[in-house]
UniProtKB/TrEMBL annotation:
<keyword id="KW-0472">Membrane</keyword>
<feature type="transmembrane region" description="Helical">
    <location>
        <begin position="6"/>
        <end position="29"/>
    </location>
</feature>
<comment type="similarity">
    <text>Belongs to the bacterial solute-binding protein 2 family.</text>
</comment>
<keyword id="KW-0812">Transmembrane</keyword>
<protein>
    <recommendedName>
        <fullName>Periplasmic binding protein domain-containing protein</fullName>
    </recommendedName>
</protein>
<keyword id="KW-1133">Transmembrane helix</keyword>
<dbReference type="InterPro" id="IPR050555">
    <property type="entry name" value="Bact_Solute-Bind_Prot2"/>
</dbReference>
<feature type="domain" description="Periplasmic binding protein">
    <location>
        <begin position="53"/>
        <end position="309"/>
    </location>
</feature>
<dbReference type="InterPro" id="IPR025997">
    <property type="entry name" value="SBP_2_dom"/>
</dbReference>
<dbReference type="InterPro" id="IPR028082">
    <property type="entry name" value="Peripla_BP_I"/>
</dbReference>
<dbReference type="Pfam" id="PF13407">
    <property type="entry name" value="Peripla_BP_4"/>
</dbReference>
Length: 334
C-alpha cells in the first residue's frame, strides 16, 4: 500500500513537473515572439523612407540640377525619398513660400539655399523647433538655427578669384587694371561673400581698381545687358569678372557685341560647358569651379547622419578649384 502511494505521489509530481515545463515552454515562446515583434518593429522603423525636400534657387538652373541629381542618387543609397522643388525663375519670395509649405506638410528633412531675410530665418527656426532638420546648401543662413551648412566657402572662393586676376594681370604686364564686376544677386549672401572676398584681395593689389558693379539676377540675358552697360559707362574697364554661373558667358556675349575681345579679359565662376569651351578657345581666362555634385551628396549624407543620431559640425565646406587653359582639356574630356 505504501509503495502504491509513493507511486501515485511520484506520478503526481511528474505530472506537475510536466505541466510546469509546458507552461515554461509556452511562456518562453511568448517572450521570443515579443522580442521578434520588437525587433521587426525596430527594423521596419529603421527601414522607413525619410521624405526629404530640396528647395532649389531655380528649377532649371544647371548648377542646381547637378546638386539635385547627385542628391537623388545619395537619397536612394540611404533609403530616402527626395522631392525636388523650386521657383521657375529667381524669386526669394517664392523660395520662402515653398519652405513654409514643406514645414506644413511635416516632411522629415529639408535642404535649401539660404535666403537673406528675417522671415526665411524664422521659418528655418520653426522647422528646427518642430523636429524637422534643415541643412543649408550653397548659400548659408548663419543667423538661423539650421543644422549645418554644406557648400563652398564663398568668401575664400571670391578671394581665390581675386588672386587669379591679380596674378594673371601682373604676369601679362598690365600696369593699370580696371575691373567691372557682375554679381548674380544682391539677395543671395553667397554672392555678397564672393564679392567681399574678391575685394579683400584686390584692394591691396597694386594697380587694380574696381570701376563698377552690376547685377545679373542669375540670368544670362541680364548678365549680358549689365556687362554692356558697365562697359559703355566705364570705357576704361579692361577686366570683367562674374560671380555666378551664367555671368561669364553673359559677359563674353557683351564683349563680343562691343568688339572688345582684344581689350577686355574675362574671369568667371562655375563650370558651364560654354564657359569651359570659351576657356579652351582663349575667350575666358579662367574660372573658379565649385563642386555641386559634392554638395548634393554631402547634404543628404549629413541628413542621414542626423537621422542616425550622429553629431554634425556647423559648417561642412566643399571643395573648389581653378580651371584655365592649362587644365581645361581634362574638364572637356567625355
Amino acid at each position: 500500500m505504501n509503495d502504491r502511494k509513493w507511486t501515485l505521489a511520484l506520478a503526481a509530481i511528474g505530472l506537475v513537473f510536466l505541466y510546469l515545463l509546458i507552461q515554461f515552454g509556452v511562456f518562453y515562446a511568448n517572450i521570443a515572439g515579443i522580442v521578434r515583434d520588437i525587433a521587426d518593429t525596430a527594423g521596419n522603423k529603421k527601414n522607413l523612407r525619410h521624405h526629404v525636400v530640396m528647395i532649389s534657387q531655380e528649377l532649371d538652373n544647371p548648377f542646381w540640377r547637378t546638386i539635385g541629381h547627385a542628391a537623388d542618387e545619395a537619397a536612394q543609397e540611404y533609403n530616402m525619398e527626395l522631392e525636388y522643388i523650386g521657383p521657375f525663375r529667381l524669386n526669394p519670395a517664392e523660395q520662402t513660400k515653398l519652405l513654409d509649405k514643406a514645414i506644413a506638410s511635416k516632411v522629415d528633412g529639408i535642404f535649401v539655399q539660404g535666403v537673406k531675410g528675417e522671415e526665411y530665418t524664422r521659418l528655418i527656426n520653426k522647422a528646427m523647433e518642430r523636429g524637422i532638420p534643415v541643412v543649408t546648401v550653397d548659400t548659408d543662413a548663419p543667423e538661423s538655427k539650421r543644422l549645418t551648412y554644406v557648400g563652398t566657402d564663398n568668401f575664400a572662393s571670391g578671394a581665390k578669384l581675386g588672386e587669379i586676376v591679380a596674378a594673371s594681370t601682373a604676369r601679362l604686364g598690365m600696369k593699370a587694371v580696371h575691373v567691372g564686376i557682375i554679381i548674380g544677386s544682391t539677395e543671395a549672401p553667397n554672392q555678397q561673400l564672393r564679392l567681399d572676398g574678391f575685394r579683400n584681395v584686390v584692394k591691396t593689389a597694386p594697380g587694380i581698381d574696381i570701376a563698377g558693379i552690376d547685377v545679373s539676377n542669375i540670368s544670362r540675358i541680364q548678365a549680358t545687358q549689365a556687362a554692356e552697360q558697365l562697359l559703355r559707362k566705364h570705357p576704361e574697364i579692361n577686366v570683367m569678372v562674374g560671380t555666378s554661373a551664367l555671368d561669364g558667358v553673359g559677359i563674353l556675349q557683351a564683349v563680343k557685341t562691343l568688339n572688345l575681345q582684344q581689350k577686355v579679359r574675362i574671369y568667371a565662376f562655375d563650370d558651364l560647358d560654354e564657359t569651359k569651351q570659351a576657356i579652351a578657345r582663349g575667350e575666358i581666362e579662367a574660372t573658379v569651379i565649385q563642386k555641386p555634385a559634392e554638395m548634393g551628396r554631402e547634404a543628404i549624407r549629413q541628413l542621414h547622419m542626423y537621422f542616425e543620431g550622429g553629431t554634425l559640425v556647423r559648417n561642412h565646406f566643399t571643395s573648389y578649384e581653378v580651371l584655365d587653359r592649362t587644365n581645361v582639356g581634362e574638364a572637356l574630356s567625355p
